[in-house]
Structures are given as C-alpha cells and as structure tokens.
Specification:
The chain is α+β, with helices and mostly antiparallel strands. It has one domain. Helices cover 59% and strands 14% of the residues. The protein contains five helices and four strands. Strands 1-2-3-4 form a four-stranded antiparallel sheet. Helix 1 packs parallel to helix 3 and helix 2 packs antiparallel against helix 3. 27% of the residues are buried.
Length: 160
C-alpha cells in the first residue's frame, strides 16, 4: 500500500507542477530566479531521456518506460527487501517513471523546470519525476549496502 500511495503522490505532484509550468511560463523564456546565481525556474521541453539523451526517440522511450514498469511489477520481490526503505524506493521509482511517461504520451515531450547552476557549472533542467527516480536509485543503492539479507546478496551466497 505504501508503494501505491507514494507512487500516486509523486505522479500528482509531478503532473501538477508541470501543468503549472506549462501554463505560467513561456517556453524557452528567461529563467525566473528563485535563488539568484543558484536556482531558477524555467520551461524546457525534453524530447529525450535524462539530459536530453536519445532525443527524437519518443516511441522507444515510451516502450522502455512501460517495459521497466512491467519488470518492476513482476520482479520487485526478487531484487527488493520488504523493508520500508526499499518500498519507498519502489514507490518513488514507479511514480517518477509514470509521471514522465504521462508527459511523453500526452504532450510528446517531458516538461523540465528545475534549473540549478553554480558559477560556470550548470546542471541540466529536470522535474519532480526525475528527482523521484534519482532519489529512489540512491535509496536503493545505499540501503543495499547495509541490508545483510539483500535478495541479490543471498542469491550470490547460495550459489557458492
């Protein structure tokens, strides 16, 4: 239940913030400083995946998203512990994938709007769904290090 609730919260938050950006900002317009010199809000259309990779490959990205969602649904018990941290990671991952998938299907691109930079370093713009996916991967990787009964560790030890 935690996975579904968290996934739905992420999808709703993601879609509401993207709708707000599409209706409140001019596409390609000037960034709106939130913290000058560090954090802006912008309206960017990402026709690819992370950092614009695979631009113009929307059908393949849609199919990939659906395949990953199916794989997560089918195999999550094999690679995740039934612990709160892994359930949170799964909810964040599903919510993030669904949020960007909705954009890809509905409007043909993913709306990005969070824009961070520090001096000459500029991070590519991203959104709530992207953040959820990255946080999910971070939680999973870090928690997998401290879980002694991680499913992948158990499988590796049993085969020895």
């Amino acid at each position: 239940m935690l996975v579904l609730i968290l996934g739905l919260i992420i999808v709703l938050l993601d879609q509401l913030t993207k709708l707000w950006v599409r209706t409140s900002f001019i596409y390609g317009g000037d960034p709106q400083a939130v913290i000058p010199g560090f954090f802006n809000l912008v309206y960017v259309r990402n026709e690819g995946a992370a950092w614009g990779m695979f631009g113009g490959q929307m059908p393949a990205l849609i199919i990939l998203s659906i395949v990953v969602l199916i794989l997560l649904a089918v195999y999550h018990r094999k690679v995740l512990n039934p612990t709160p941290d892994h359930r949170i990671a799964l909810g964040l991952m599903i919510g993030g994938i669904c949020g960007n998938l909705i954009d890809r299907i509905r409007v043909g691109w993913v709306t990005d709007f969070l824009d961070f930079h520090l001096g000459a370093c500029h991070w590519p713009s991203f959104n709530v769904a992207d953040s959820a996916i990255c946080i999910a991967v971070g939680i999973y990787l870090l928690s997998s290090l401290w879980h002694t009964r991680h499913p992948l560790k158990s499988s590796a030890n049993e085969s020895k």
